[in-house]
Amino acid sequence: MLEERKKRVLQAIVEEYIKTAEPVSSGAIMNLEGLEYSSATIRNEMAELEKMGYIEKTHTSSGRVPSAKGYRYYVDELLEDNKITVDEIDYISKKLETKVNELEEITQIASSTISEITHYTTVSIGPSSDVQKIENIKFVLLSHRMMMAVILTDSGLIKETIIKFDEDITENQVQTLSYIFNNKLKGEPITKIDRPLEKYLVEEMSYSVNLIKPIVEQMKKVVEEESVHLEGANRLFELPEFNSLEVAKNFVNILDEKDLMADMLNTGFAKDINVYIGEENEKEELKDFSVVTFKHRIGNKDLGTIGIIGPKRMDYAKVISVMKYISKKLNDNNNSNE
Questions:
Q1: How would you class 301 by CB atoms within 10 Å of its CB: exposed for 0-12, middle for 13-18, buried for 19 or more?
Q2: What is the C-alpha to C-alpha distance for residues 104 and 107, in angstroms, rounded to an integer?
Q3: pTM of the prediction?
Q4: Which residues contact 114 (CB under 8 A, 6 or more apart)?
Q5: Percent of the chain, pLDDT > 70?
Q6: Is 184 exposed, middle or buried (0-12, 13-18, 19+ CB in 10 A)?
Q7: Could you report the per-residue pLDDT of 251-261, keeping only the tens digit for each?
Protein backbone atom coordinates (compact mmCIF):
# COMPACT_ATOMS: atom_id res chain seq x y z
CA MET A 1 0.00 0.00 0.00
CA LEU A 2 1.14 3.53 -0.75
CA GLU A 3 1.39 6.21 1.89
CA GLU A 4 -1.41 8.79 1.83
CA ARG A 5 0.72 11.54 0.29
CA LYS A 6 1.92 9.29 -2.52
CA LYS A 7 -1.69 8.23 -3.17
CA ARG A 8 -2.80 11.83 -3.55
CA VAL A 9 0.10 12.72 -5.84
CA LEU A 10 -0.47 9.62 -7.99
CA GLN A 11 -4.20 10.33 -8.20
CA ALA A 12 -3.45 13.90 -9.26
CA ILE A 13 -1.02 12.75 -11.97
CA VAL A 14 -3.43 10.15 -13.38
CA GLU A 15 -6.41 12.49 -13.45
CA GLU A 16 -4.45 15.42 -14.87
CA TYR A 17 -2.97 13.22 -17.62
CA ILE A 18 -6.41 11.79 -18.45
CA LYS A 19 -7.71 15.36 -18.80
CA THR A 20 -4.86 16.93 -20.77
CA ALA A 21 -3.03 14.06 -22.53
CA GLU A 22 0.15 15.97 -21.65
CA PRO A 23 2.96 14.73 -19.34
CA VAL A 24 2.39 16.10 -15.84
CA SER A 25 5.01 18.24 -14.14
CA SER A 26 5.38 18.99 -10.43
CA GLY A 27 4.40 22.59 -11.20
CA ALA A 28 1.12 21.46 -12.76
CA ILE A 29 0.30 19.43 -9.66
CA MET A 30 1.09 22.35 -7.33
CA ASN A 31 -1.62 24.38 -9.01
CA LEU A 32 -4.31 21.76 -8.40
CA GLU A 33 -6.91 22.46 -5.75
CA GLY A 34 -6.57 20.39 -2.58
CA LEU A 35 -2.87 19.53 -2.91
CA GLU A 36 -1.13 21.75 -0.38
CA TYR A 37 2.37 20.36 -0.73
CA SER A 38 5.53 22.26 -1.54
CA SER A 39 7.21 21.92 -4.91
CA ALA A 40 10.12 20.03 -3.32
CA THR A 41 7.77 17.58 -1.59
CA ILE A 42 5.89 16.89 -4.81
CA ARG A 43 9.13 16.36 -6.75
CA ASN A 44 10.34 13.91 -4.09
CA GLU A 45 7.08 11.98 -4.15
CA MET A 46 7.13 11.84 -7.95
CA ALA A 47 10.70 10.52 -7.87
CA GLU A 48 9.64 7.81 -5.41
CA LEU A 49 6.59 6.88 -7.46
CA GLU A 50 8.78 6.61 -10.56
CA LYS A 51 11.23 4.30 -8.75
CA MET A 52 8.28 2.14 -7.65
CA GLY A 53 7.03 1.89 -11.23
CA TYR A 54 3.76 3.83 -10.87
CA ILE A 55 4.73 6.68 -13.22
CA GLU A 56 7.15 7.02 -16.14
CA LYS A 57 9.22 9.79 -17.68
CA THR A 58 8.67 10.46 -21.36
CA HIS A 59 11.41 11.21 -23.85
CA THR A 60 9.84 14.47 -24.99
CA SER A 61 9.14 16.18 -21.68
CA SER A 62 10.33 16.49 -18.10
CA GLY A 63 6.80 15.60 -16.97
CA ARG A 64 5.57 12.15 -15.96
CA VAL A 65 2.79 9.91 -17.22
CA PRO A 66 1.10 6.98 -15.44
CA SER A 67 2.41 3.49 -16.14
CA ALA A 68 0.12 0.46 -16.49
CA LYS A 69 0.91 -0.25 -12.83
CA GLY A 70 -0.09 3.30 -11.92
CA TYR A 71 -3.39 3.03 -13.80
CA ARG A 72 -4.12 -0.30 -12.12
CA TYR A 73 -3.51 1.13 -8.65
CA TYR A 74 -5.68 4.11 -9.49
CA VAL A 75 -8.57 1.91 -10.67
CA ASP A 76 -8.33 -0.47 -7.71
CA GLU A 77 -7.62 1.98 -4.87
CA LEU A 78 -8.13 5.64 -5.81
CA LEU A 79 -10.96 5.89 -8.31
CA GLU A 80 -14.12 7.71 -7.19
CA ASP A 81 -17.22 6.38 -8.94
CA ASN A 82 -19.41 9.48 -8.50
CA LYS A 83 -18.09 11.33 -11.54
CA ILE A 84 -21.42 12.02 -13.19
CA THR A 85 -23.15 15.36 -13.66
CA VAL A 86 -26.79 16.31 -13.14
CA ASP A 87 -27.18 16.86 -16.90
CA GLU A 88 -25.79 13.39 -17.58
CA ILE A 89 -28.16 11.86 -15.01
CA ASP A 90 -31.12 13.59 -16.71
CA TYR A 91 -29.94 12.44 -20.15
CA ILE A 92 -29.53 8.82 -19.03
CA SER A 93 -32.97 8.84 -17.38
CA LYS A 94 -34.64 10.06 -20.58
CA LYS A 95 -32.82 7.54 -22.76
CA LEU A 96 -33.73 4.61 -20.53
CA GLU A 97 -37.41 5.56 -20.50
CA THR A 98 -37.59 4.57 -24.19
CA LYS A 99 -40.14 1.82 -24.77
CA VAL A 100 -38.55 -1.39 -26.01
CA ASN A 101 -40.06 -4.68 -27.18
CA GLU A 102 -37.05 -6.87 -26.46
CA LEU A 103 -34.61 -6.95 -23.56
CA GLU A 104 -31.77 -7.10 -26.09
CA GLU A 105 -32.73 -3.57 -27.15
CA ILE A 106 -32.14 -2.32 -23.60
CA THR A 107 -28.49 -3.39 -23.82
CA GLN A 108 -28.10 -1.56 -27.14
CA ILE A 109 -29.67 1.60 -25.70
CA ALA A 110 -27.42 1.40 -22.63
CA SER A 111 -24.40 0.83 -24.88
CA SER A 112 -25.16 3.84 -27.09
CA THR A 113 -25.80 6.03 -24.00
CA ILE A 114 -22.42 5.12 -22.49
CA SER A 115 -20.69 5.89 -25.79
CA GLU A 116 -22.42 9.28 -26.11
CA ILE A 117 -21.48 10.38 -22.59
CA THR A 118 -17.93 9.00 -22.40
CA HIS A 119 -17.00 9.55 -26.10
CA TYR A 120 -15.48 6.07 -26.27
CA THR A 121 -16.38 3.15 -28.52
CA THR A 122 -18.75 0.59 -27.01
CA VAL A 123 -19.40 -2.99 -28.05
CA SER A 124 -22.28 -5.10 -26.77
CA ILE A 125 -23.61 -8.62 -27.11
CA GLY A 126 -26.79 -10.21 -25.83
CA PRO A 127 -26.98 -12.69 -22.95
CA SER A 128 -25.05 -15.94 -23.19
CA SER A 129 -27.09 -18.79 -24.69
CA ASP A 130 -25.80 -21.05 -21.89
CA VAL A 131 -28.01 -19.37 -19.29
CA GLN A 132 -31.17 -18.91 -21.37
CA LYS A 133 -34.14 -21.24 -21.49
CA ILE A 134 -36.55 -21.65 -24.37
CA GLU A 135 -39.96 -20.14 -23.69
CA ASN A 136 -41.55 -20.67 -27.09
CA ILE A 137 -40.70 -21.76 -30.63
CA LYS A 138 -42.94 -20.58 -33.44
CA PHE A 139 -42.78 -21.66 -37.08
CA VAL A 140 -44.33 -19.51 -39.83
CA LEU A 141 -44.81 -20.85 -43.36
CA LEU A 142 -43.50 -18.33 -45.92
CA SER A 143 -43.82 -20.42 -49.11
CA HIS A 144 -44.13 -24.07 -50.13
CA ARG A 145 -40.46 -24.66 -49.34
CA MET A 146 -39.57 -21.86 -46.93
CA MET A 147 -40.36 -21.35 -43.24
CA MET A 148 -39.38 -18.84 -40.55
CA ALA A 149 -38.47 -20.04 -37.06
CA VAL A 150 -38.83 -17.63 -34.12
CA ILE A 151 -37.22 -18.65 -30.81
CA LEU A 152 -38.19 -16.73 -27.65
CA THR A 153 -36.16 -17.21 -24.47
CA ASP A 154 -36.97 -16.47 -20.84
CA SER A 155 -34.65 -13.43 -20.94
CA GLY A 156 -36.78 -11.83 -23.66
CA LEU A 157 -34.21 -12.53 -26.38
CA ILE A 158 -35.72 -13.31 -29.77
CA LYS A 159 -33.85 -15.25 -32.44
CA GLU A 160 -35.24 -15.45 -35.96
CA THR A 161 -34.05 -17.50 -38.91
CA ILE A 162 -35.28 -18.59 -42.34
CA ILE A 163 -35.26 -22.31 -43.18
CA LYS A 164 -35.35 -23.63 -46.77
CA PHE A 165 -36.40 -27.17 -47.71
CA ASP A 166 -35.79 -29.50 -50.63
CA GLU A 167 -39.41 -30.69 -50.52
CA ASP A 168 -42.80 -29.06 -50.13
CA ILE A 169 -44.21 -28.41 -46.66
CA THR A 170 -47.83 -27.71 -45.71
CA GLU A 171 -49.43 -25.49 -43.07
CA ASN A 172 -50.59 -28.58 -41.17
CA GLN A 173 -47.04 -29.89 -41.07
CA VAL A 174 -45.80 -26.54 -39.77
CA GLN A 175 -48.33 -26.61 -36.95
CA THR A 176 -47.34 -30.17 -36.05
CA LEU A 177 -43.65 -29.22 -36.11
CA SER A 178 -44.38 -26.33 -33.73
CA TYR A 179 -46.01 -28.81 -31.34
CA ILE A 180 -43.11 -31.28 -31.57
CA PHE A 181 -40.37 -28.73 -30.98
CA ASN A 182 -42.18 -26.93 -28.16
CA ASN A 183 -43.05 -30.24 -26.50
CA LYS A 184 -39.41 -31.34 -26.60
CA LEU A 185 -37.65 -28.04 -25.91
CA LYS A 186 -39.84 -25.65 -23.92
CA GLY A 187 -38.15 -24.89 -20.59
CA GLU A 188 -34.87 -26.41 -21.76
CA PRO A 189 -31.58 -24.51 -22.15
CA ILE A 190 -31.36 -22.97 -25.60
CA THR A 191 -28.19 -25.00 -26.26
CA LYS A 192 -30.32 -28.19 -26.21
CA ILE A 193 -31.25 -27.43 -29.82
CA ASP A 194 -28.02 -29.28 -30.65
CA ARG A 195 -29.40 -32.65 -29.48
CA PRO A 196 -29.53 -35.64 -31.91
CA LEU A 197 -32.18 -35.39 -34.64
CA GLU A 198 -34.10 -38.47 -33.54
CA LYS A 199 -34.95 -36.77 -30.23
CA TYR A 200 -37.32 -34.49 -32.14
CA LEU A 201 -39.16 -37.33 -33.87
CA VAL A 202 -42.05 -39.30 -32.44
CA GLU A 203 -42.98 -42.76 -33.60
CA GLU A 204 -46.34 -41.75 -35.08
CA MET A 205 -44.79 -39.04 -37.22
CA SER A 206 -43.96 -39.89 -40.80
CA TYR A 207 -41.76 -36.85 -41.50
CA SER A 208 -38.50 -37.58 -43.23
CA VAL A 209 -35.15 -36.59 -41.84
CA ASN A 210 -34.84 -34.29 -44.86
CA LEU A 211 -37.57 -32.14 -43.32
CA ILE A 212 -36.34 -32.15 -39.72
CA LYS A 213 -32.61 -31.85 -40.39
CA PRO A 214 -32.56 -28.32 -41.94
CA ILE A 215 -34.73 -27.03 -39.10
CA VAL A 216 -32.33 -28.25 -36.42
CA GLU A 217 -29.23 -27.16 -38.32
CA GLN A 218 -30.51 -23.62 -39.02
CA MET A 219 -31.88 -23.13 -35.49
CA LYS A 220 -28.58 -24.33 -34.04
CA LYS A 221 -26.70 -21.89 -36.29
CA VAL A 222 -28.79 -18.84 -35.31
CA VAL A 223 -28.57 -19.70 -31.60
CA GLU A 224 -24.77 -19.92 -31.73
CA GLU A 225 -24.41 -16.59 -33.53
CA GLU A 226 -23.43 -13.75 -31.23
CA SER A 227 -24.79 -10.46 -32.47
CA VAL A 228 -22.14 -7.81 -31.82
CA HIS A 229 -23.46 -4.26 -31.65
CA LEU A 230 -21.01 -1.36 -32.08
CA GLU A 231 -21.46 2.29 -31.07
CA GLY A 232 -19.21 5.33 -31.51
CA ALA A 233 -16.56 3.64 -33.65
CA ASN A 234 -15.27 7.01 -34.92
CA ARG A 235 -15.05 8.70 -31.53
CA LEU A 236 -11.63 7.34 -30.59
CA PHE A 237 -10.01 8.82 -33.70
CA GLU A 238 -10.48 12.26 -32.16
CA LEU A 239 -8.04 11.36 -29.34
CA PRO A 240 -4.30 12.18 -29.61
CA GLU A 241 -3.28 8.52 -29.14
CA PHE A 242 -4.82 7.80 -32.53
CA ASN A 243 -2.50 10.18 -34.31
CA SER A 244 -0.25 7.11 -34.43
CA LEU A 245 -0.94 5.31 -37.71
CA GLU A 246 -0.07 1.97 -36.11
CA VAL A 247 -2.56 2.42 -33.25
CA ALA A 248 -5.28 3.64 -35.64
CA LYS A 249 -4.78 0.70 -38.02
CA ASN A 250 -4.80 -1.72 -35.12
CA PHE A 251 -8.09 -0.29 -33.88
CA VAL A 252 -9.71 -0.54 -37.33
CA ASN A 253 -8.63 -4.19 -37.52
CA ILE A 254 -10.19 -4.84 -34.11
CA LEU A 255 -13.51 -3.38 -35.26
CA ASP A 256 -13.48 -5.68 -38.29
CA GLU A 257 -13.05 -8.81 -36.17
CA LYS A 258 -16.45 -9.59 -34.68
CA ASP A 259 -15.21 -12.84 -33.14
CA LEU A 260 -12.41 -10.97 -31.36
CA MET A 261 -14.88 -8.50 -29.87
CA ALA A 262 -17.25 -11.29 -28.81
CA ASP A 263 -14.34 -13.10 -27.12
CA MET A 264 -13.34 -9.86 -25.42
CA LEU A 265 -16.81 -9.48 -23.93
CA ASN A 266 -16.93 -13.11 -22.79
CA THR A 267 -13.63 -12.92 -20.88
CA GLY A 268 -13.37 -12.90 -17.11
CA PHE A 269 -16.38 -11.71 -15.12
CA ALA A 270 -14.91 -12.06 -11.66
CA LYS A 271 -17.04 -8.97 -10.99
CA ASP A 272 -19.89 -7.18 -12.74
CA ILE A 273 -17.42 -4.48 -13.87
CA ASN A 274 -13.96 -5.59 -15.01
CA VAL A 275 -11.08 -3.35 -16.13
CA TYR A 276 -8.29 -4.62 -18.39
CA ILE A 277 -5.39 -2.21 -18.95
CA GLY A 278 -3.04 -2.64 -21.91
CA GLU A 279 -1.04 -5.84 -21.47
CA GLU A 280 -3.72 -7.26 -19.14
CA ASN A 281 -5.88 -7.92 -22.20
CA GLU A 282 -5.65 -11.54 -23.31
CA LYS A 283 -5.77 -10.65 -27.00
CA GLU A 284 -2.56 -9.30 -28.52
CA GLU A 285 -4.56 -6.88 -30.69
CA LEU A 286 -5.84 -5.08 -27.57
CA LYS A 287 -2.46 -4.42 -25.91
CA ASP A 288 -2.52 -0.71 -26.86
CA PHE A 289 -5.96 -0.21 -25.31
CA SER A 290 -7.92 -0.42 -22.10
CA VAL A 291 -11.17 -2.36 -22.02
CA VAL A 292 -13.89 -2.08 -19.38
CA THR A 293 -16.57 -4.79 -19.47
CA PHE A 294 -19.93 -4.47 -17.78
CA LYS A 295 -22.10 -7.52 -17.09
CA HIS A 296 -25.55 -6.11 -17.73
CA ARG A 297 -28.36 -7.40 -15.48
CA ILE A 298 -31.84 -6.50 -14.35
CA GLY A 299 -32.46 -8.37 -11.13
CA ASN A 300 -31.31 -11.92 -11.87
CA LYS A 301 -31.81 -11.60 -15.62
CA ASP A 302 -28.67 -11.57 -17.75
CA LEU A 303 -29.13 -8.95 -20.48
CA GLY A 304 -25.70 -9.33 -22.02
CA THR A 305 -22.36 -7.57 -21.80
CA ILE A 306 -21.17 -4.09 -22.73
CA GLY A 307 -17.52 -3.35 -23.39
CA ILE A 308 -15.90 0.08 -23.59
CA ILE A 309 -12.69 0.37 -25.62
CA GLY A 310 -10.40 3.35 -25.14
CA PRO A 311 -6.77 4.34 -24.76
CA LYS A 312 -4.92 3.44 -21.56
CA ARG A 313 -5.51 7.12 -20.73
CA MET A 314 -9.21 6.30 -20.43
CA ASP A 315 -11.35 8.31 -18.01
CA TYR A 316 -12.02 5.24 -15.85
CA ALA A 317 -13.91 7.22 -13.20
CA LYS A 318 -16.36 8.59 -15.78
CA VAL A 319 -16.87 5.21 -17.49
CA ILE A 320 -17.49 3.29 -14.27
CA SER A 321 -19.69 6.05 -12.80
CA VAL A 322 -21.93 5.99 -15.89
CA MET A 323 -22.07 2.18 -15.93
CA LYS A 324 -23.09 2.01 -12.27
CA TYR A 325 -25.74 4.68 -12.64
CA ILE A 326 -27.26 3.00 -15.72
CA SER A 327 -27.35 -0.33 -13.86
CA LYS A 328 -29.06 1.30 -10.86
CA LYS A 329 -31.55 3.17 -13.05
CA LEU A 330 -32.54 0.05 -15.01
CA ASN A 331 -33.12 -1.92 -11.83
CA ASP A 332 -35.06 0.95 -10.26
CA ASN A 333 -37.26 1.16 -13.38
CA ASN A 334 -37.80 -2.60 -13.33
CA ASN A 335 -38.78 -2.61 -9.65
CA SER A 336 -41.25 0.24 -10.13
CA ASN A 337 -42.92 -1.64 -13.02
CA GLU A 338 -43.39 -4.85 -11.06
A1: middle
A2: 5
A3: 0.75
A4: 120, 122, 231, 306, 308, 319, 322, 323, 326
A5: 85
A6: middle
A7: 888 887 877 88
